[in-house]
């Protein structure tokens, strides 16, 4: 029995839409008495209720000398084949003596198309849906908006007359799924769109509020930015938001973006003395749904650096003084130094290389002289007994005896 409830709810939604569309097809239900609606491109038949079956009936069209081409009178009714927009207007039927029997205003249009529907939740307690027609019908149109949740409960998505094309489901359940039925109805028929939604997928907070940007004293590259939660977001600790901050100098096109979970942030890479544009958006802390739209812009200018300001003032004063002086037309007696800095650098490098080679040559010569002197000193200090032994060895044996 419980398993049949969801399907029963769906049938009830479709049945309600069908009954409503059938009743709306009656002209009186649309508040336009004496109006008949017809579908463009089809044969439209206008009846003459006051005519007798045996009497002849004549049809006239207001503002026209003759009936539209191709029209036919059959058994007192006027048939307009393949009705085009030009055939709309007021028609009247008359008796043989010219008496008015009936008058009708013909309005031509199209059947409703399947509407385009989108849903969004700005908090976890309610969600709203909006729609637009996919076909311009040229006829009065109404909408029936209902929903069914996963438990089979069927309810109305409440429409607000002050916001046409929208409806709201109040006290929605965060973990529940919903099937929306948006039915478009006009005097010719109806068409509907079914849309399945979950709160986690359609959550999109409103933009943060109260955005304030202020310069920080003695900090030429910093701006302090603060904001508040959107007033539509529930004030509960388990429903938190995270934020995205974008900023740029007004003379630049590219944005810098940072993310934070706080309600304030310090920009540390601003350009001193340049006005900056700042915006902030919000998203569910657990990354459900989508980012909000950007908030309204706020602007501020970081303080100027005192050192750079003094330097700029000095430069400006010097420029003004130079402009104030009259340029001299007499030739300058001092010689003009036309040397090129690159040429000076090349000369210095050449001199350095030359000095290096000179020093290397001197060092090599010094080392060779030192080695030779050292060798000669060793030869002079040999022991005398070695010299005598060498001499004796060289004498003949006879002399020794």
* Main sheet attributes: strand count, strand direction, barrel closure: 4 strands, mixed
Shape: elongated
Report strand order across the widest sheet.
1-7-6-3
According to DSSP, the number of beta strands is 22
Give the C-alpha Rg.
50 Å
Question: So how many helices?
Answer: 6
Features:
four-stranded antiparallel sheet, disordered C terminus, 401 residues, disordered N terminus, four-stranded mixed sheet, 6 helices, alpha+beta, 32% strand
Question: How would you portray this structure in words?
Answer:
It is built from 6 helices and 22 strands. The protein starts with a helix and ends with a helix. Helices cover 24% and strands 32% of the residues. The strands form 6 sheets. Strands 1-7-6-3 form a 4-stranded mixed β-sheet, with no helix packed on it. The longest helix has 40 residues, at 341-380. The model is unreliable at 1-9, 11-28, 323-339 and 384-401 (pLDDT under 50). It is α+β, with helices and mostly antiparallel strands and 401 residues long. It is elongated, with a radius of gyration of 50 Å.
């Amino acid at each position: 029995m419980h398993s049949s409830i969801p399907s029963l709810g769906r049938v009830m939604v479709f049945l309600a839409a069908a009954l409503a569309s059938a009743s709306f097809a009656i002209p009186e239900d649309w508040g336009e008495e004496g109006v008949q609606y017809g579908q463009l491109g089809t044969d439209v038949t206008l009846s003459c209720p006051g005519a007798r079956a045996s009497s002849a009936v004549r049809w006239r069209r207001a503002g026209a000398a003759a009936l539209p081409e191709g029209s036919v009178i059959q058994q007192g009714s006027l048939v307009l084949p393949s009705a085009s927009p030009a055939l709309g207007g007021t028609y009247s039927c008359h008796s043989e003596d010219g008496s008015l029997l009936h008058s009708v205003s013909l309005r031509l249009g199209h059947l409703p198309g399947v509407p385009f529907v989108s849903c969004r939740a700005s908090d976890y307690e309610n969600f709203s849906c909006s729609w637009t027609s996919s076909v311009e019908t040229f006829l009065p149109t109404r909408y029936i908006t209902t929903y069914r949740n996963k438990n089979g409960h069927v309810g109305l998505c409440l429409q607000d007359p002050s916001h046409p094309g929208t409806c709201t489901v109040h006290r929605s359940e965060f973990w529940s799924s919903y099937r929306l039925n948006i039915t478009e109805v006009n005097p010719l028929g109806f068409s509907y769109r079914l849309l399945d939604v979950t709160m986690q997928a359609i959550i999109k907070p409103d933009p943060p509020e109260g955005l304030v940007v202020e310069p920080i004293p003695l900090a030429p590259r910093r701006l302090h930015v603060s904001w508040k939660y959107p007033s539509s977001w529930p004030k509960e600790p388990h429903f938190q938001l995270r934020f995205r901050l974008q900023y740029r100098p007004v003379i630049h096109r590219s944005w810098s973006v940072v993310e934070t979970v706080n309600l304030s942030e310090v920009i540390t890479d601003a350009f001193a003395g340049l006005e900056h544009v700042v915006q902030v958006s919000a998203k569910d802390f657990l990354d459900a749904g989508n980012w909000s739209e950007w908030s309204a812009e706020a602007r501020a200018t970081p303080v100027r650096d005192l050192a750079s300001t003094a330097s700029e003032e000095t430069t400006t004063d010097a420029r003004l003084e130079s402009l104030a002086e009259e340029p001299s037309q007499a030739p300058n007696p001092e010689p003009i130094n036309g040397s090129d800095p690159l040429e000076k650098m090349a000369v210095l490098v050449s001199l350095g290389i030359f000095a290096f080679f000179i020093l290397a040559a001197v060092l090599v010569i010094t080392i060779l002289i030192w080695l030779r002197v050292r060798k000669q000193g060793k030869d002079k200090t040999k022991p005398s007994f070695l010299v005598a032994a060498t001499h004796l060895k060289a004498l003949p044996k006879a002399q020794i005896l």
